Amino acid sequence: MPEQPLFDEQFLRKLEYLRIVAKKVFSGQFSAERRAKKIGSGLEFADHRDYAPGDDFRYLDWNLYGRLEKLLLRLFEEEEDLSITFLLDVSRSMFMGSPVKADYARRVAAALAYVGLANLDRVTILPFSAGLSGGLAPKRGKRQVFAVLEYLAGLQPGGVTDLEGSFREFVHRTRRRGLAVVLSDFFDARGFERGLNYLRYNRFDVYVVQVLDAAELSPRIAGDMRMVDVETGDAREVTVSPAILAEYARRMRTFCDALERYCRESSLGYVRAVTSVPVDVLVLSVFRAGGFLR
Amino acid sequence: MSFLGWSLGQLLLAGGVASAASVILYLFRRRERVLPVSFLSFWEGALAERQPRALLRKLRGLLGLLLALVILWLTSLALGRPVVGGASERPGSVVLAVDVSTSMAALREDLPRIERARRLAREAVDSYPSIPIALVTFTDAVNVLVPFTKNRGEIRARLASLDASQCPGPTARAMETVRGIARARDSHLVVIGDADTAEALGDASEASSVTFLNAGEAGDNLAITEFAMRGGLAGGMDYETMVRIANYGREARELAVKIYSVDHDRETIVDAVSARLAPGIEKTLFFPSLGGLFGRVVARLHEPSGERLADALSADNEAYIYAEARAPVRVLLVSPGNLFLESALAVDRGVVVARKAPGEVGNAEGFDVVVFDGLAPKAFSHPRVIEFPRDEEIEALSDDGRIGPTRLMIAQDHPLFLGVSMRDIAIGRAMKLSAAAGDIALAKGVAGDPLIVESRSGAGRRILFAFDPCACEWPLRAAFPLFWANVVRLSADRWTSDPFASAKCGEDYPLKACGEATEIAFKAPDGSTGSIVSAPAVAARLPCRQIGFYEVKSGGMVSYVGSNLFDGAESDLRGKSEAPDGSAAHPATVRVRGIPELWRALVVCAAAVAVLEWFTYTRRWTV
């Protein structure tokens, strides 16, 4: 648990801002389609939205009009809606860094989840490490945002990272297809391709958010030390010199570039999230890059 | 190499303990830092190609330990302040002798030589660590300030308070005394001074046991080298004044010499004269009359503009003299008429002569001296009588009572004959005198017969001639009047051996002998006081160690003594040796060989090794 609240007042204000921005970004070409989908024949009241020319008069809420003198449409739950699953890496490697990568990933997930909730998408949070561990039942609607935030704040570190095992378990467990947002550092000794392929091959729209700490990209250490892998516990006595640092940085860069190239070639969304970049800046870049919200 | 006086065993034991502690600390410090990483695989890939083999890593670790030990040993050695050189090369003790004569107060760029001497002395003290040092100062006398001691604080404190005196510079005897102090303990002698010191040291400066450090540089100086007064015959009650000045410089100088009268610490200018001195030239200035000036008189050098002269050495820019008041000597001449004698006595305008015929003398009270032209009556009583027989009185004597012809043999160094030459004066006849016990024969004949005798009884003085001085060729001599001036003044005690009190600083000035033992109090120019005991018939000696007026009180009477430098060797700051181009040169400064200490080099080496060790092993940046 972070020392300071993971989602404070300032963060919540940013969430609303992001929602508004997201709404503007997608209020054009796709807005009608999304609304049409939303106004379903279901009996379960879901939410209100503003009346737009062309909407069905039958769903106008005249009681609200009497009170607010504002034309609002009643929305009912639609069976066929977008499902967004946030696959959040909670392995021990994610609890490294300053700020902690897991905290950063949770804030990103919270922001994106809030936008999804505001769009009446079904939002699911599934933490994973060596496999899936628990998860938050699907939520819809802005009123569920606090449940999402509370769940995210309560996540605990897991064990080693097993992307393939976790994603295989996910696709087998989840019948509803949709958007899978993977927030991880992808530090898996077995690689990332097989895990992501599971998602691709099972018709998930995948969006990859690779979370890294700036010190992991360019560490500033030197001298004799004993390096210990936080996940596996493997240790190595090393003497770090500038040449070693340069080689490490090159390997890290190669790894990240390989992931990005794989995602691009596989038509997967990709963003490299360095924890030194503010969350809201990152999320806005995700919106502008497209591919997250349709 | 010595080390804090420890034995080799003690040294090894201490080193072993320190090394063990160092190894323990090093191993503790070398406990490796554990760094958790997110993904070790990346590091292993980077390390695979570049990590040294395990053996090399271990050797590297041992090298780090060795560097730490080297740092420890270097630092420990530095703390012990080791010195280079065995016992044979280190002196057992050092005598540090500093010249504090007047010339050490000479300024160069507003810094006196003594300041440089203090600095050289401090450097010399630092160059001889851990051995006894004695601090000695010298002028023409030697003073041991600090006996042999290892207490550097005491030596430095005395050095800090060291200052140049006003006494003249070192003599060969003083240097020999200093060398004797060093020889007594087989000490190395370090002498700090100027060119005068080097000259006094002579060939001794070449000895391996002597190190000379030159604290002086050549400089230009103007000086008063003599200041004197005398009672002239034509001056009446006045004094003739003489000032000798010298230019110890390389360029001609214009200056003014002013004479001041000092009364109750107030100076009044009496006379002044301008002069121009070529380099290396001395000049004597005469002031024939100073208007009856007596008492404390000061001669001072000034710039042509009127300001006081400001040159390298100020101690010789003033001179001091005390002149007793000159009162006329009243002489009663009892004579039937003696043109030669009357004329001779009249030459000295400080002598007032009254003549009476024999038989009309009566009471001679009120006269300082009574001169009888002819033998004095036996009943006549006066404390100061000068008498000589007339030629006819000698003629009337029996053969046994007469001597002559003869020539006059005088005691030339007697004040009676000052300025007088009486050689080859033929005396036709003289009466035979019998000198009583205590009488002084001032002149004798060829055969040894006393011809002029001085008798004293108490305060009285009687001078008896055995011949008629006017009956020979003597009155025709030019010195005849001067002789009578001397006789009269001597008889009247008006002309002491030194009517002018002027002493040379550094010497003891003889004060008048008193009839009774008495304590004489004096006050020096700087205001300090002292006293000396005067024994009967033994002249008390006033120790003059400062330049200026000494006030002397004795028997309720106050007088003064002027103390002056008057030392050309001290005033001449140009140096004694000659450079190849003919100009004067000062002796070169010899760097104190001292005992080379290694601690600074050891500290630098330890720091360098520490930097190397830090850069190689300790420099760490944390994630």
Outline the secondary-structure elements.
The complex is a heterodimer of chains A (294) and B (623).
Chain A (H helix, E strand, L loop, with lengths): L8 H17 L5 H8 L6 E6 L11 H7 L3 E5 L6 E7 L11 H18 L3 E7 L7 E4 L5 H9 L9 H11 L5 E6 L8 H9 L3 E8 L1 H4 L5 E7 L5 E6 L1 H24 L3 E6 L4 H11 L5
Chain B lengths: L7 H22 L3 E5 L2 H9 L5 H26 L14 E6 L7 E2 L2 E2 H15 L5 E6 L3 E8 L2 H9 L11 H13 L3 E6 L1 H7 L8 E5 L6 E11 L7 E10 L4 E11 L2 E12 L4 E6 L7 E8 L15 E6 L5 E6 L4 H9 L3 E6 L12 E5 L10 E5 L2 H5 L6 E2 L2 E2 L1 E2 L15 E2 L2 E2 L8 E5 L5 E8 L2 E6 L14 H12 L8 E5 L3 E3 L7 E6 L5 E6 L6 E3 L4 E7 L2 E8 L3 H4 L5 E2 L5 E2 L13 H20 L5
Parallel strand pairs in B: 2-5, 2-7, 7-8, 16-17, 16-18, 18-19, 19-27, 28-34
Antiparallel strand pairs in B: 3-4, 5-6, 9-10, 10-13, 11-12, 11-14, 14-15, 15-28, 20-24, 21-23, 22-25, 25-26, 26-27, 29-32, 30-31, 30-33, 33-34, 35-36
Helix pairs in contact in B: 1-3, 3-12, 4-5, 6-7, 8-10
Task: Write up this protein.
The complex is a heterodimer of chains A (294) and B (623). Chain A is an alpha/beta fold. Chain A is built from 10 helices and 10 strands. In chain A, 39% of the residues are buried. In chain B, the strands form 9 sheets. Chain B has a 9-stranded mixed sheet, with no helix packed on it. Chain B has an 8-stranded mixed sheet with strand order 17-16-18-19-27-26-25-22, covered by helices on one side. The longest helix of chain B is centred in the first third of the chain and has 26 residues. Chain B is elongated and about 150 Å long. Chains A and B meet through strand 8, strand 9 and helix 9 of A and strand 1 and helix 2 of B.
